[in-house]
Design brief:
The complex is a heterotrimer of chains A (about 260), B (about 180) and C (about 350). Chain A is of the alpha/beta class and about 260 residues long. Chain A has helices spanning about 25-40, 75-85, 95-100, 105-110, 150-155, 160-165, 180-200, 215-220, 220-235, and strands at about 45-50, 65, 90-95, 115-120, 170-180, 205-210, 240-245. The model of chain A has no long low-confidence stretch (mean pLDDT about 95). Chain B is of the alpha/beta class and about 180 residues long. Chain B has a single domain, classed as 3-Layer(aba) Sandwich (Pyruvate-ferredoxin Oxidoreductase, domain 3), CATH 3.40.920.10. Chain B has helices at about 15-30, 75-80, 115-120, 125-140, 145-155, 160-180, and strands at about 1-10, 30-35, 45-55, 70, 90-95, 110. Chain B has a six-stranded mixed beta sheet with strand order 2-3-1-4-5-6, sandwiched between helices. In chain B, helix 2 (about 75-80) links the parallel strand 4 and strand 5. The longest helix of chain B is centred in the C-terminal third of the chain and has 17 residues, at about 160-180. Chain C has two domains: about 5-200 and about 210-235, Rossmann fold (3-Layer(aba) Sandwich); about 240-355, Rossmann fold (3-Layer(aba) Sandwich). Chain C starts with a strand and ends in a 9-residue tail after the last helix. In chain C, strand 2 (about 25), helix 2 and strand 3 (about 50) form a beta-alpha-beta unit. By secondary structure, chain C is α/β, with parallel strands linked by helices. Classes of the chains: A alpha/beta (about 260), B alpha/beta (about 180), C alpha/beta (about 350). Strand 2 (about 65) of chain A pairs parallel with strand 9 (about 210) of chain C.
Amino acid sequence: MPETVFSKPQALRDVTTHYCPGCTHGTIHRLIAEVLDELGVRERTVGVAPVGCSVLAYNYFETDFHEASHGRAPAVATGIKRARPDLVVFAYQGDGDLASIGTAEIVHCANRGEKVTVVFVNNAIYGMTGGQMAPTTMPGQVATTCPLGRDVDLSGHPIRVSEMLSTLRTPAFVARTSVHTPLLSVNTKEMLRQAFTYQVEGRCFSLVEILSTCPTNWGIPPAEATEWLEKNMLPYYPLGVFKTPESGSRESMPLER
Amino acid sequence: MQNDVIMAGFGGQGILLIGKILAYAGMHEGKEVSWLPSYGPEMRGGTANCTVVISDRPVGSPVIRSPRAVVAMNLPSLDKFEPDVRPGGLLLINSSLINRKAARDDLTVIEFPANQIANELGNRRGANMVALGVYLGATEAVSLEEVVEVVRETFAAKPGVIEINITALHRGHEIGAACAVGV
Amino acid sequence: MTKKLMKGSEAIGEAAVQAGCHLFFGYPITPQNEIPEYMSMRLPQVGGTFVQAESEVAASNMLYGAAGSGERVMTSSSSPGVSLMAEAISYLAGAELPVVIVNIMRAGPGLGGILPSQNDYLQSTKGMAHGDFRLLVLAPWSVQEAADLVQDAFDLADYYRNPVLILGDGLIGQMMEPVEFAEGREPIKELPPKDWAATGNDGSKPRSVINSLFLDPEELERHNYHLKEKYDRMERDEVRFETSGLDADYDLLVVAYGTVARVCSTAIEELADRGVKVGMVRPVSLFPYPYRAVREAARKAKAVLVVELSMGQMIEDVRLAIEGSKPLHFLNRTGGMLVSPDEVVDKIQAISEGSSQEVVHA
C-alpha cells in the first residue's frame, strides 16, 4: 500500500483561489488549515473574513465563516466568541483592514483580551483596490496614492502593529513571522499553532502578523519581491514573539485606598 | 379626574425622589401614572424637576405645559414655573429658600418653610418630604397612607430614616390640609 | 403578574432579557444610557454577556457576529450613534441577520442636542444606509408598549431574518410608567430553527457563511428580489396602528406617532369636551407604514393634520397615503422642543377657522 505523505488539509476546500501568482495568502491559508486540522478544532471553528484581497477567504476554508465589513473583523469575532465561547474564532485581516480603518477594533479587541486569534497579513500595500498606500507602506515605497514614494513628513512612518499591541497590559500572544522562505513558513505554522492553542486553552487574545509579498502591486516579479521584502521590510518589521501571556507584569493594579 | 404636578428645585434636594414616591403611591392605588424627569445639561448641578401625572384614565401627554400644581423648592424653580401653572391651580412655595411672594393672584398659594420645618424635626434632609406632605394635604392626589407605605419600601435599606421622613410627611400634610383646595 | 414602575430604558432592557436576549453590545450616548447600564447589571444575573464596545461602529459589528452565531442580541443608541451603526445595519440586512436595535432619538442634525426628537424617521424607514433594504420599524408611545414591542421585535427579527428597529424618543427612554411583563409569553410567530447560523461545521449540514457579498450581479439581483419578497410580506402582514374616534363623525384627522400621539390624544379629549370632533390614526409600525388606514380614515375628514417632532418627515408618508385628496396641515417642534396639548388644540381650532396654512407642494 502506498503511504500518503502529503495531502490537502481537511480545513481547506478543494477550490482554486483568486490570488495572484507569487502572493502568499495561499500559503498562509494552508498553514492555518493544517493547524486547525492538527489541533482537531476544524468542526468548531468559525472564521471572519475581511475586506481586502482575502475578502473571499470564506470560499477557501472548510469551516463556517462570517464576512465582515472593512476593518470590523475583530468586533465581529468578539460578537461570535461572546455569543458562543465554545467556538474557535479567528479573524483574517490585511494591513489596510487592520492597521488603517480597523485600528480601533483591533486595539480594543486585544485590550479586552478576547479569546480569539487574529491572523494579520502585512504586505505593505492595498492589494484589492489596486496598490494604494497602506499604513504599513515603507518610507519611499511607491504606491498609486504616493507616486513619488511614501513621504514620512506627510504620511508618517509605517505602523508596527505587533510592537504597538505588545504595549498593552492585557495578557496576549503577539508574534511577527514571514512566509517568504520554507524555513520561515515552518516557523509561521508554529506561531499559528501557539496562537490557536492559547485560544483553545481559553488563555488570551492572540495575533500573528505575517509579512507577505505583493508582486502585482509592488510591480516586481515574485522572486524579486521576496528579495525586496528581505531588504526593506525585515529591518523595519523584525520577526519574533513580542508578547506572551507569561511575559511582563500581569497582576492588576487596584486603586490605592 | 387627573392630578398633575411639576416638582422643581436644586439637584440634591430629593425632588425626583418625592416625584417617584408620588407616582408609586398612585400606581399602588390602581391609578394610571407617569413620571417624567428633566434631563440633560440642566441635570448637572443646576435645577432638577419632574412631572408627575396621576389619573383615573390612561395618561395622555406625560408632558404638562400648564400643570395643575407646581412645587417650587427654590427661587429659580419659582421663577421658571410660576407663569405655567394653570389658572386656579396650586402653587407651593418653599419659603425657607425663596424670599419672594407669588407674583400671580389667580392661584391658590401655600407658603411653607420646608427646610426650617425639617430642621426642627431633626431631619435636615427632609424638606422634600415636608413638601410632598403639603402637596398631598392640599390635593389628596393619593392617600397619605399609601405614600407612607411607599416611603417604608423606598427606605427599607435605611430603616433609621423611615420614621423621621414619615413625621416630616405628616407635618407637611397638616399644613396642606389646612389649605386644602381639592384640585 | 405585577405592575412595576419602570423607566422606559429599563423596561426596554428587561423586555429584551425576558425575550431571551442574553447578549448586549453598546456604547454610551445620552439619552439612552440607562439601557446599557441596566443590561450591564442584569445580564450577568441570567448568565448573559454585556460588552461596552469601543464605538457604535464596533458595537454594531459585534451584533453581527453574535447574531450570525444564532443568538438573540440587541444594541441601543441615540441618533448620532445610530448613524455610526448604519454601515453595519446595511450588512446585517444584507446578510439577513435577526437583531434588535433601539434608537432613542435626540435632536439633530450633527451633534444637535440631547432632548427628544423624531428627526430620524426618514433614516429609519427609508434611508438608513447604502443598498436596497428595509428595517421593520416599531414606534412605542408608552413604556408598556415599548416593553411589548421589544419582545415582539425579537420574534419578528427571527421570523423574517431581518433587523428590527425600535424607534423611541427621549421621553420614552426617560419616563417612568407602570409596566407588567406577561409570564410564559409565547412567540408571536412560528419561529424556524436557525440552521443558517455559523456555529461550526462537522459536515452534517451545508457550510454556513454569514455574508452580504455577491460579486456575481445576477446572484445579487436574485438576492435583492429575495429581500424584496420579505419586505412585501412585512407590508402585507406586519402593519400595526391604532385609531381613536374614527367610529363617530369627525371633521379632522390627526396622524401622529410615538409620544407625540399621546400629546395629541390629550388635546383631542379637550376638544371633545368643547364639541370639536377629531379622529386619530397612530402608526405603530413605521415600516411597514399603515397607508391604507390613513387613506381610509382621511375619507371622512375635511382635513388632515400631521404632528411631528421634526421639520416634516412622516408627513411624506401621509402625503403618499392621502394623495392630495384632503388639505394637509402640519404642526411641529424641533431641536428638542416638545409639542404641548395646548398647541395642538390651537392648531386644530385654527384649521377649523380657516386660519391655518395648508402644506402645499409644488
